[in-house]
Amino acid sequence: MTSPHLSPLCRAVDGHVQRPRAPTGAHRALKRFTCQLASRGPGAIGVAARVALVHKPPQRATLADVARLAGVSAKTVSRVYDGSTNVSPDTRRRIEDAAERLHFRPNLLARSLRHGGVSTAVGFVLGDLTNPFYVKVAAGMERELSRSGLTMVLGATEDDPAEEHRVVGTFLAQRVRALALVPIADDQSYLERERGLGTPVVTVDRPARNLLADSVLLDDREGTAEAVRALTRLGHRRIAFVCDPAHLYTHVERLAGYREALREAGVEDTSAWERLDDPPGQGTEASILGLMDMAEPPTAIVTGNNKASAALVRALGPMRDDLAYVGFDDFDLADAIGFSVVAYDTVELGRMVARRVLARLDDPAGAPVHVRMPTHLVPRGSGERPPPK
Amino acid sequence: MTSPHLSPLCRAVDGHVQRPRAPTGAHRALKRFTCQLASRGPGAIGVAARVALVHKPPQRATLADVARLAGVSAKTVSRVYDGSTNVSPDTRRRIEDAAERLHFRPNLLARSLRHGGVSTAVGFVLGDLTNPFYVKVAAGMERELSRSGLTMVLGATEDDPAEEHRVVGTFLAQRVRALALVPIADDQSYLERERGLGTPVVTVDRPARNLLADSVLLDDREGTAEAVRALTRLGHRRIAFVCDPAHLYTHVERLAGYREALREAGVEDTSAWERLDDPPGQGTEASILGLMDMAEPPTAIVTGNNKASAALVRALGPMRDDLAYVGFDDFDLADAIGFSVVAYDTVELGRMVARRVLARLDDPAGAPVHVRMPTHLVPRGSGERPPPK
DNA sequence: CTGTTAGCGCTTTCAC
DNA sequence: GTGAAAGCGCTAACAG
């Protein structure tokens, strides 16, 4: 019965004495049953056994199974997989053969547990997976992390502060190695302890509140200021700024850049041109149409994000040429419709987040590092028109 | 020294005898050191100790730590966290208090290992994180999975077959509970074994090759056919189809739908109107300009995906009204520029993938299930123009 | 309702 | 260069 012709997985079953109380005891008993039948030839498997076989699949081969088949100790097999060089070429080959035959895959769960209980995943908590900004950041992160053998786990808060706590909690329970976070809750002090416990936190797009964490942000203020300066240089003075919602950190910064640049050009009071929170239920399109209906309408509009830019296109049509406009954030087809924007490399931003995570893992101590990713003006026609005479 | 006033984490240190050979022995020794200093008051921590404390952070509290503080056994604490009701309210409160004080978080890694070595994550292997289609699918999946307490791990193949193997391998090593996959390799038979080992596979957007797996696809063929039928009903006969690359499953299907609908309208030979692989180095815009340069140019164009639609806008401008056109895939601002499309609910598709995963986890046996998500024509102007007389 | 014991699959320490 | 024993944090089985 314990003949050498039994399949490797069946051999593992013979080790039953060594693992008498596995939680999946039923599985194992069943496995032995079906394997025994199988050793009589496939035709001997009854219907019940076949159904059971499908319902309770065979176990994966473990390191011990490989060791047994290769005739070495578990530790030696382990050495082959943790990059140790202290294995003779001959032994190594035997082990690799055995592993191949058993389709062995090291269990990262077990390895992580043994290795200080920390997984190889980095959590990224973002607002919304349908927002192209967050997702391109995630793409950059993933590329950079995978080069270091780390994976990325994504969680969405749907811009709900309570969800931030829930998702972060799940990730911490999974023992992510680090946490990247687009903060939405009012307060991230609850993460201070985790940082102290060795889980670095890097915030993305917005700074953390009440938490000493690294951050990777855009240069929101300078980006908008540059756009407005280009317009004032062309002679524009009646420049509007459209953004919603106004309270978000990035939007506050962009508004500040707008005001700053207009003040430089001698325009002190911009309040008449600011549309910061859209009329409830009507949205940004209404704000923009309202601006154009003014007695003295603006000669240029700066939008605070890509949603506002889309609203502008919807409100005024794709190629309105009696008005100058520049949008924060690049977007698909902006080139095709000649929409000038304040752009930045979103994927690179994600890579930078990953690099901060890696650097922080290498050096958990030290003051928080804050990175501002640069923006640049992309002229495409809509932002280079002087005001009408 | 073992006074009750020592912090809980320091108490854990007193259990040193119980875990004498932890792999992080250095950490623990260090922890004891700093804790002892700390018990003399924070001011007594020397510079070296403080640096060391930061470099080698204290350990997380474990279930055993909580049990010790609450004066119960580990198993009882465990019962509180696995949803057992067999704990007296009083004990439960004591445990919860202790857990709170120690900031205890159950270690999902350990739990997963004990639970048959399967994690709570579902892997989704997609082509490219910057592609909005895949990402919206991921968004839908994530929403549905999180309702069942599962998380999602994302991996990108960058459309490289070798990467598919690598990413899938990583996920399997992490013992994902199931695998969703946009296949890119020629052959997925390597996953047959994993399925047999209890890891369900659901393919997305394209069927698997040589693997019995569930799939969630779009109704590509009918989607294109519907668009073409609407055009033939308006009188169009010279209808072009632009798509690249031609070999992809979805594109093959969409082409078939195009041909089918034109055949229904009496047009047998469509080869002159098909632009299936763009001129190398020049892209889809060149294909489209080439079509319009023909002696008898098409009166309508159907694009095979959103990239081709974008190329059409770039080649012909955003509001070309002497030509009818319809695109497969909806895209941002398509409404603003009056671009009619064959649309579908991408997020819902993702939810459906998640539901297939969950169903398959419940019932690993049974024949593969194939789902086709419906598409629908969204009229926005560009597709409802009759041909010029 | 609660505790004891053993072990998931792996890696660590230490001995050979 | 290799092996034996122990245990990471948690939970299943089985007592009491």
From TrEMBL, chains A, B:
Region listing for Disordered, in residue ranges: 370-389
Gene Ontology MF terms: DNA-binding transcription factor activity; transcription cis-regulatory region binding
Domain of life, source organism: Bacteria
Span of domain HTH lacI-type: 61-115
PANTHER family found in the cross-reference section: HTH-TYPE TRANSCRIPTIONAL REGULATOR GALS, LACI-RELATED TRANSCRIPTIONAL REPRESSOR
Gene3D superfamilies the record matches: 3.40.50.2300, lambda repressor-like DNA-binding domains (1.10.260.40)
Entry keywords, A to Z: DNA-binding, Transcription, Transcription regulation
Pfam annotation, one family: LacI
Protein name listed in UniProt: LacI family DNA-binding transcriptional regulator
